[in-house]
């Protein structure tokens, strides 16, 4: 039987499929959210940085679905990781969404900007500080140790503003560092997961440590790295009488991951909610396909800042996920 929910490590349940809202054009998000909720979705994934939280809130209101039936995630952007900005950020996000609380609040990235904003003002994009290279400067100390930010997020749980907290774009090494000081364990790590970027070591480690792997860009990218039209995927889709997207999302759920596919097209939104039961043989075929090519990411910001910061540490002999995972075997 297809899995409709995952249970988080704090006992709360999250629907297996969510609607992602990243890279949706202005004016489209409210209608997409309304359409999704009317189609049966009960899980919405958004973020302050997407610039469309207000539209998400409009879509929730227009749907008529009661708030308590919807699992809403948003994210603390890297502009707002300084401890004094966390209370301002959650206040702004809740105001934008028109909600009293979030079901899940994630650290959006494991990097932190240096900002120059007046005291008591929530930093905006124009408050980022540029370095000599013209790239925006990282606060390296806070990037290396996010525990001060996490302590403020824990307070949001205590205050009832957030039901659960988690991270995003954290590898094994960085989750381990956070766990050493965390009072509240992260319930999830939202990372790029797809058949073109399967991250098997990270998924396995997160599951072993009772942290839900969430999958953004779950259908992969475009062009040469797009595996949706692969013959293996097509063949399995034909057996089940569904589209290839349904197979790839079902595979992720079967791996124990929580995909949040993005769409603004009502037909695709409704279709993406359909999961199928993959046979053991079909699941193993997809696993083999996912590891038959070099992994390819849609999103890597490592070279976007000053100094350059190796976000994923994929080639680090000690801190890569492969190295960290091997240590525990």
TrEMBL record:
PROSITE patterns: ALDOKETO_REDUCTASE_1, ALDOKETO_REDUCTASE_2. GO terms for molecular function: oxidoreductase activity. Residues 17-290 form the NADP-dependent oxidoreductase domain. The record marks 75 as: Lowers pKa of active site Tyr. InterPro entries: AKR, Aldo/ket_reductase_CS, NAD(P)_OxRdtase_dom_sf, NADP_OxRdtase_dom. Signal peptide: none annotated. Coiled coil: none annotated. CDD domains: AKR_AKR1-5-like. Substrate binds at residue 108. The active site is at 50 (proton donor). This is NADP-dependent oxidoreductase domain-containing protein. The lineage of its organism: Eukaryota, Fungi, Dikarya, Basidiomycota, Agaricomycotina.
